[in-house]
Amino acid sequence: MITVGIDVGSITTKAVLLNGTTWQSLLLPTGCSPRDAGKSVFEQILDRASLSPADVDCVVGTGYGRISLPFIDKAITEITCHARGALHLVNGTDMVIDIGGQDSKVIMIDEQGRVINFAMNDKCAAGTGRFLQVMAAVLGADVSDLADLARGAEPVQISSMCTVFAESEVVSLLAQGVSKERIISGIHRSVAGRVASMAGRLGRGRRITFTGGVARNGGVREFLARELGQEVTVAPEPQMAGAIGAALLARDRCKH
Amino acid sequence: MRPSMMKIFDNLRDQNILDLEHAKRDNKKVVGMYCAYSPQELALAAGAIPVSLCGTKNEPVAAAEKVLPRNLCPLIKSSFGFAITDTCPYFRFSDFLVADTTCDGKKKMFEILSSIKPMHVLHLPQGTDRPGALGWWLEEIRVLKDKLEENLGATIDEDGLRAAIKLTNRERQVMRKLHEMNRLDPAPLSGVDLLTATWLRSFSVDKAEGIELVEQLIEEIQEIAEKGLSPFRPGTPRILLTGCPVGSGSEKVLKLVEECGGSVVCLENCSGIKTQVYLIDEDESKDPLEAIAERYLQIPCSCMSPNPGRLELISKLIDEYRVDGVVDLTWQACHTYNVEAELVRQLIKDKFGLPYIQLETDYSTSDVEQLKTRVAAFIEMMDRS
């Protein structure tokens, strides 16, 4: 059986092709058209596997752009997909922390990877990948280098949760001569603190798995573990969790 | 399948406004009421038409924010905005306003509003578990009676009150019966239609006519249900909506739940069944004002402390309507419902083990996409297909 999961996020679009027990993945920037990004990631992953759409038994779309995909069989929210994907990636997961481009969520799951409870950030960008991107731009750094730049530095206090206010706070810290390393470390702690308090409202997990693009940032992971007083496991290929979950849910659908 | 009667309800708002205009021309008085605690029987007994002025639309919010703080509940801002912009026909038709000291935001807003039109604000007790609570409230109802008589130039007598009680009790019973049709699985009426059909009771000039319309609707629903028809497929998650009031214009969460694959089988809020479950005692040997006071004080609103009645009602409704999950709606900056949500969450989790979600939002459409993801994920938790 061949199924595909497409996760159209705010920054990147991911596809996972599941063929029996093996899977392959692909990631592209979403750009300005989620619909086109979803279409091209689907075409490209099929191309690589030398398959045509007719070979695929079921396609599930997820992520904020899921509604705009005309070729999918079903749209399922990223919350349900991440839950399923995270359990597949890290055995025994009962709490998923996902920090993506424009939202962050904490999901409690059962042994089958089904959602028991979840919390999601409100309207603003605090505690999301976008927050890190904006801060990286102010500091003239690439977002993927932030963790290396901050390594070991004592975090400075960033008190604004709001992305716009935090940006001016960072500018004034730079003007005061505070080192970039300490500021970045402070930014990591701020993101982690925000998400940890959301997790605290849901209760305690025995095994916490970290997914989404921000999970690639070791600094945020470290502060998350510190704030929660628990180990936080980064899922292998953390950005793929949603698409993997979607492909698995597509397989479940076919079996019915 | 949607009952064909619903078309009549869809157009009832315009009809109600026309009827009201005619009634005003015939020198009928109109009493605008802001809250479910305001006893409409007193207005009816005074020969006036009670209408609800609780703001449920987003349009006047911007105007209200020129005077009121932005960080205030949209219901208060909408109610106030309608009044200062004179864009609500029901407000314009009102000769006298009746309000209640429910939450802090409302009671202070009423102080500003009272300069626009003559108004009386009923003082509610803080809770119902003190020996003096009912006596206090009865005294307040008596003061209201005097105020209405004085301002409307009418007399409110016992016969008038008893007739009004009989009429509003009939209305409550028929609304309850309509609601109870949705105990069937799958529900024969969508939550959005249930709201449309019950909402208009607060604006009709002739209550008896309104009751008859709802009776006809119930008959049609019974026929539909007998054929096993429903707008929902079997297995659709059955949702209880509780929390802040929802009305025409502020049904965004209700709509979202149904768009995302749920069926809102029961509305617990004060625009729904909360205000219909308790009838007024019709015992002829009882002072009607006392019977009215008793009944209205039973309404389990979060402005009461403590408010065990709401948790009891929710528990009952979960069983009666075979509910799969509970959506608790909180309007932004509504502190009483927002804080009470924790007690509701505990009840739903500990006693029923059902999925529960609290959604905090306002009347605007700015957060619809984010809400949609949350609501859809919540429905997916219960999906039995």
Quick one: CATH class of the largest domain in chain A? Alpha Beta
Arithmetic mean of pLDDT of chain B: 96
Shape descriptor of chain B: globular
Specify the number of helices of chain B.
16
CA-based gyration radius of chain A: 18 Å
Protein name (chain B): R-phenyllactate dehydratase beta subunit
EC number (chain B): 4.2.1.-
GO molecular function (chain B): hydro-lyase activity; iron-sulfur cluster binding
Family (chain B): Belongs to the FldB/FldC dehydratase alpha/beta subunit family.
SSE blueprint:
The complex is a heterodimer of chains A (256) and B (385).
Chain A: E1 2-8, E2 12-19, E3 22-29, H1 34-48, E4 58-62, E5 74-75, H2 78-89, E6 95-99, E7 104-109, E8 115-120, H3 129-138, H4 146-150, H5 163-175, H6 180-202, E9 208-211, H7 218-228, E10 232-234, H8 241-255
Chain B: H1 6-10, H2 12-25, E1 30-33, H3 40-45, E2 49-52, H4 61-64, H5 74-85, H6 89-93, E3 96-100, H7 104-113, E4 119-122, H8 133-152, H9 158-180, H10 191-199, H11 207-226, E5 238-243, H12 252-259, E6 263-267, H13 288-297, H14 308-320, E7 325-331, H15 335-352, E8 356-361, H16 368-382
Parallel strand pairs in B: 1-2, 1-3, 3-4, 5-6, 5-7, 7-8
Cofactor (chain A): [4Fe-4S] cluster
EC number (chain A): 3.-.-.-
Pfam families (chain A): BcrAD_BadFG (PF01869)
Structure description:
The complex is a heterodimer of chains A (256) and B (385). Chain A is an alpha/beta fold and 256 residues long. Chain A has helices spanning 34-48, 78-89, 129-138, 146-150, 163-175, 180-202, 218-228, 241-255, and strands at 2-8, 12-19, 22-29, 58-62, 74-75, 95-99, 104-109, 115-120, 208-211, 232-234. In chain A, the strands form two sheets. Chain A has a five-stranded mixed beta sheet. In chain A, strands 8-7-6-9-10 form a five-stranded mixed beta sheet, with helices on both faces. In chain A, helix 2 packs across helix 8, helix 3 (129-138) packs parallel to helix 5 and helix 3 runs antiparallel to helix 6 (180-202). Chain B starts with 5 loop residues before the first helix and ends with a helix. Chain B has helices spanning 6-10, 12-25, 40-45, 61-64, 74-85, 89-93, 104-113, 133-152, 158-180, 191-199, 207-226, 252-259, 288-297, 308-320, 335-352, 368-382, and strands at residues 30-33, 49-52, 96-100, 119-122, 238-243, 263-267, 325-331, 356-361. The radius of gyration of chain B is 20 Å and the shape is globular. Helices cover 50% and strands 11% of the residues of chain B. The model of chain B has no long low-confidence stretch (mean pLDDT 96). With 385 residues, chain B is α/β, with parallel strands linked by helices. The interface between A and B is medium-sized, with 15 and 12 residues.
